[in-house]
Design brief:
Length: about 150
Amino acid sequence: MTVRPVEPRDAEAWAELYAGYRRFYRLAEDAGAVETTWRWVRDGEHGMVGLIAVDGDVPVALANLRWFARPSSATMALYLDDLFTAPAARGKGAGALLLEAAAGLAADGGASVVRWITAADNATARSLYDSHAVATQWVTYDMKPKPRG
């Protein structure tokens, strides 16, 4: 198994993996969101980077990352938005390889950290993450945009 950047030929396999990610998190089926995210990842829009784990030549897992500025430390960092492994490939090391590739990408780009969030009840993912990173004390909030006026 190896990890490489996404390529245009990965479009169909990537879309299937990303749709699986969305189903896992109970997000509504949305072909438009999948298509838009693929474009961002494929073309590097918004600082996005797409990695894919392949078993032979078959894509089995993906990682969608993006660069962001950290004003508090005046550094750049890499944010792991999405990590997903096809159910048939789980437990075979794809997730670990993607995390290691993300760490290498961050080091190559001079990043100060690779950061991500996951669901508190995602025990399987957290077991993997705990072996590669340190959970922080920070709590995540979401606020809906509200028009001014």
